[in-house]
Sequence to fold (303 residues):
Amino acid sequence: MARHRKYEAAEESNPALDISSLIDVCFLLLIYFIVTSTITPRESDLGMALPAANPSTGQPEIEPMFIRIEANGAIYTGSGASQQAMDSDTSVRELPLLRGQLDMYASAARAANSKPLVQIYADGEASQQRVIDVLNALAGVNINSVTFTDLVN
Amino acid sequence: MASSKLRNASAEPEAECALDMSPMIDMVFLLLIFFIVNATAIIVQTDPNVRPPIAANSKRQEDGSGRIVVNIRPDGTFTAEDFNTVLPGEDEIYDMVKTMKDRHQSLGVVSKLHLRGDKESVFRYCRTAIRGAARAGVDQVVFGVFVREP
Fold:
């Protein structure tokens, strides 16, 4: 009888929950998710305003700069006799020649107290990346008023 | 005598055996804080079939309001933000943009076209989307790009 009481008391005095296996599983899951997760790169914005967003009442004070993007990725500025070949290597994201021209044009426009305007003719078969390269160069010199002259086909 | 003392001494630590949880809790909170701080809010849902082009001079996405997302897959398929709704052509893009623009207008938000074109797609698809949006009266265009190669 006394032995039975002693046994019951010993059992009640040590109530314990073994959580070590739970911790093992938690860490295993944590390591699994860390190892299998992939970091999604964050997207950013390259903004531009179509002419309708900035309506002008009269003629622009400065001649808009004309940029042509060919299907093969070659870039030209100007038109007719004043046409100049710019960067043509499609594997290079930076466009140093175009950037130089844009810099000069933007400086001249701002010196004349007017807003620099750019007209782009992009061939329908030109890659999206190439057009973005040109828009990226424009963003580099703070030009965001762009007209696509070929919104027809 | 000595053997009973030894027995008592060796029995005591077993009786008070306990697992100290505080370092583990510290670490769990540290990890939690790390993940919360590192987490970024999703501005727009992204179609996994579209790999945007690279533009180093692009700006970080800050405001998600007023964005009307059009995805352009490499084969020229247009999809809406949920990337399950396929938009077959310019007229469907116009309808979608118009509906969204009216909704934004009622909330007093300016609409802008968020164009997520795949870098391998050709520009004529992009032009179709811009034209559809312009017809619906949306003239602000934002191109979804990566700052650097992912």
Q: What stands out?
A: The mean pLDDT of chain B is 84. The radius of gyration of chain B is 28 Å. The CA atoms of residues 50 and 106 of chain B lie 31 Å apart.
